[in-house]
Amino acid sequence: MLKLASFTVVALAGSIASAQCSEKSYTKSDCGDKNKTAQVTHASYDTQATKDIVDTAIGAGSFKTLVAAVQAAGLVDALKGPGPFTVFAPSDEAFAKLPAGTVTELLKPENKAKLANILKYHVVSGKVLAADVKTSSVVTLAGQRVDLKADKGVMVDGAKVVTADVMASNGVIHVIDTVIIPSDKNIVETAVAAGSFKTLARLLEQADLVGALTGEGPFTVFAPTDEAFAKLPKETVESLLKPENKDKLAAILKFHVIQGRVFSDAAAKGATVKTLNGQELTTKSEGGKVLVGNATVTAADLDTSNGTIHVIDTVLLPK
User: Fold this and answer.
1) Rounded Cα distance, 238 and 178, in Å
2) Burial tier of 319 (Cβ tally within 10 Å: 0-12, 13-18, 19+)
3) In angstroms, rounded to a whole number, what is the distance separating the alpha carbons of residues 199 and 221?
4) pTM for the complete prediction?
5) Which domains does the chain possess?
6) Angle, helix 64-72 to helix 112-120, in steps of 10 degrees
7) Which residues are CB-neighbours of 151 under 8 A, at least 6 positions away?
8) Segment 106-164, tens digit of pLDDT
């Protein structure tokens, strides 16, 4: 985990009346090389900011598109709430980088839910200042995670934080140069697109579970790869595909699914979770790896629009 190595914090050019800036410069060790130091310009804002996140954005004058989107998505009251929240706020220039017509389409009433999900993907619960950022991933209000990188600046899912630590009464704003978009593919679509879950996709279709796993969810799926299924005794898969074994197949597949999003860091702490077939699974960490039952997680936290996928190397069989 890398702590913030160097970052320049600047005031929103005369745009926020409540932000009284006094700048100071100092040096901090660069985590990439302890023998180097990085010059950091830090703008310290009034910690008693009286405007909430929405009013701060309105007052800035450079978030007109964002404000219009928040209003269209019905999120004004939420972002005026007590919080605290951390908002990665795309500037008007960031929205202008989207394909032509994208913003207009998102602002249509029929796209309200999609717009709200995109905006929630820019918001994290709690107050995270730039100096506290570490290279990690954090859960957004959309339920999906964003990747934070702190190495010669702060990056959020590939977007660069260009202005940090703009204080509001109910949180903090970090201005970003690109709109970040959550995955719009559901669990089944993500698995099919990956190309390494052909057997799983075939079995889900045979068990009539595709509709369930394309539903709203959210779900957590421990997904065996094609190689995991190949480890089963010969002809097991073909036997499960027979119509008379449909209920047995469905029970096995549901044993790989739990309700809600469970990320790998929570699973690593050890838990017993109830699967969709009613039986329980135990998760734990061992040797630096996350184990689910007798399977090892080989790739974790694959976000989808309706849940999270953890790739496993062994098919889980209920009792």
Assistant:
1) 48
2) exposed
3) 15
4) 0.72
5) 22-176 (2.30.180.10), 187-312 (2.30.180.10)
6) 120
7) 2, 5, 31, 32, 135
8) 999 999 999 999 999 999 999 988 888 887 888 999 989 898 888 778 899 989 999 99
